[in-house]
Design goal:
The protein has 155 residues and is of the alpha+beta class. Helices cover 45% and strands 17% of the residues. The chain contains 7 helices and 4 strands, in the order αββααβαβααα. It has a 4-stranded mixed β-sheet with strand order 2-1-3-4. The chain is globular. The mean pLDDT is 97.
Length: 155
């Protein structure tokens, strides 16, 4: 068995434990860097009353804490299911180098466990999306917010 398969089985077993012991979402994730597991996590949306507490998000958060920084360059994520658009975006932002998943969107679709809907929604033009996303140029008096940030970065 390859290490990729072993880490994927770890994510599946985490997800199965989540189903059996917590009666909740069947998702688990493992973050690995240089052959060392930095984090293991499960979906905790219900437990935390947090819609962003997906297994991959929880694993990315835990791995970042373990490293003491939000940069996960060189890390690989192993997920039980295809990551949703939120989780995939977080992994891109963190610098994750690769993501492997055990169950595809097609595997999850009959169980209403597919992440495809989010990708379809984000691919639509802004005016056709279900949720309003609108630019309203608002500025406070004084120094511009982004200028203040740039000045802080120079110090």
């Amino acid at each position: 068995m390859s290490s990729t398969e072993a880490y994927l089985l770890d994510s599946i077993r985490l997800a199965m434990e989540n189903v059996r012991e917590r009666n909740t979402w069947p998702f688990g994730a493992v973050v690995v860097r240089d052959g060392k597991v930095l984090a293991r996590a499960v979906n905790e949306v219900e437990a935390n009353c947090d819609p962003s507490a997906h297994a991959e998000m929880q694993a990315v958060r835990a791995a970042s804490r373990a490293l003491g920084k939000p940069d996960l360059s060189g890390c690989t994520v192993y997920a039980s299911g295809y990551p949703c658009s939120m989780c995939l975006s977080a992994m891109y932002l963190a610098g994750v180098k690769a993501v492997y998943y055990a169950y595809s969107n097609e595997d999850g679709e009959p169980y209403d466990l597919s992440a495809e809907r989010g990708y379809i929604e984000l691919a639509r033009p802004l005016a056709q999306r279900e949720m309003t996303l609108a630019y309203v140029r608002a500025r406070d008096e004084g120094i511009d917010l982004y200028e203040a940030w740039r000045e802080q970065q120079r110090q």
